[in-house]
Amino acid sequence: MDRYRYRFRSVWRLDSPPDVVFGVLERAGEYPDWWPQVREVTPVDERTGTARFRSVIPYDLVVRARESRNDPRARVLEIGMTGDLEGWARWTLSAQGGGTHALYEQEVVVNKPLLRRLAVAGRPFFVANHALMMRAGRRGLRKVLARRHTV
Question: For the whole prediction, is pTM greater than 0.85?
Answer without folding.
Answer: yes
